Queue: 3 jobs
Job 1
Amino acid sequence: MLFMTSSVIVSAASAGIGKGIVAVLLGYGYNITAFSRDESKLRALKEEMKLKFGREINTVVADLSVRSDLENVVSNHREKYGSIDNLVVNYGDPKVSSFIEISDEDWDYAISMMLKSTIYLTREALRDMIRTKHGSIVYVTSMTVREPIEGFSISASLRSAVISLAKTLTHEVSQNGIRVNTIAQGYFNTDRFRDIMKREIDSLSGMKRLAGEIPLRRVGEPEEIGELVEFLLSSRSSYINGANIPIDGGITKFPL
């Protein structure tokens, strides 16, 4: 069952996938620290969650690529909730471009935003989880790790590294009652996704065209990822560990 005071940190939480995760977890009773670099969107998220659920979330303005910001998130969460019981690492999107056009600066930023942030947040979460002998970590990755897409070399490379990290951690921390899993998201109805659709064609017809390629004939909603994340945090998934679970409507063809 859910620990009655179970807390969770959720990154990149002010919109899109992160917002969907926050909404679902709050509905299940989690104590949430949500962080994002967009202060106005965080403020709107806090107000919306309070109105919808009658409960407040803890919000911190922080950039995933800035270590001092992450240190502030961790200290703020511990001050409010005592310890990090669960961790959900969601990411912003790195640059989408052909490999030859990606600069060293683009790679450096993405490595800080996706990989170094994961390492730091995980290390801090594990300090608490090992002490309390329970906890769950979920990393939100992408279908690009299973089925590469042109222009997504940064995303596929770094998210693959995150999956490898998760698998390795299961052999190091599971004896302490800690599970680590990843999910591989497909196409979801977010502002970012709609912006990408508009580059080729208007948003609605673009989504309809893409949906025709998905076996379920639709793109996903952020809350559907939230439900999967909550399941992986909860004891209902107590024997799922080190898994990379696709949530993509069946669009990826790679069988493993």
Note: Helices lie at 16-27, 39-53, 67-81, 104-132, 153-173, 191-200, 203-211, 222-233.
Job 2
Amino acid sequence: MLTEIHKTSRMDAALEFLSRYHTDGEDFLNRIVTGDETWVAYVNAETKQVYGMGSYRFSNPAEESPSHFASEEADGYRLWDAQGILLIEFMTRGTTINSEVYCRTLKKLKRAIQNKRRGLLSSGVMLLRDNARRHTAVRTGEVLTQIQMGCVSTSSLQPGLVSF
């Protein structure tokens, strides 16, 4: 159940967002970058060649090079804007995405924006994020200032709100 404080906080975040949209319109929406942690399951196909021994020959070409499929898992962080994916960063399994890891990802995001969305950094990127500790840590704020990105915050630590 939401308390009055939760409701007020949500209302403040929504009004801030609407105010920025009213001022800058579609340009504001096109400058937003957001992201989320993800768990990825994928199949890694490795081709193995089977060699005949002696005078035995394979009659079916499919038997000569069967595919071996290995199921893999990875943790990661993906970041995107209105045009699509900017960065997907895979991490070793069990890596905790703390402020240090998040700051490294933000620096990689800056490079990805420079390569994929020329001019976006100079127009003022707005990072849409929740209030998770790694997002609000002092070091994270320093890195955001260093790479010249602003923020639009949500209040995901409040009950019932889905994180972006």
Note: Confidence is low (pLDDT under 50) at residues 47-69, 156-164.
Job 3
Amino acid sequence: MELIIYLLIGAIAGFTAGLFGVGGGLIIVPILYVVFTQLHYDPAVIMHIAVGTSLATIIVTSFSSVTAHHKKGAVLWPVFRNLAPGLVLGSFLGAGIADLMSGQHLQLLIGIFAVVMAYRMFKGAHVVVDPTRQLPSTPMQF
């Protein structure tokens, strides 16, 4: 039965990751939290295990999604190269901070972040768009 549950979670997360570019953390972590709770995992570490497991699954969804987007020319690799050092540093820093937090505090932080991001997406961007300006055909580097 567990295998079926995990296959369904993976399918849902993979679908949302491929379609929207989100899914890993926003879908898998809360679902794994519920599943791990039902499986009677230690409440003190459920969130840490859910986040860690989610991060491992993101490797698969990211690779398959970026491959598909790359084939369509929808990945700006120079931008990625500029983001990569900060991503690596931020990942280590974030993991270190998460390790110091209790499961309850980590759960609260993730919940607040998800609600704030959902609100901001629902509210929409309030920027004036210049219709004469278009994205450059090739990425500009500074």
Note: Residues 2-123 form one domain.
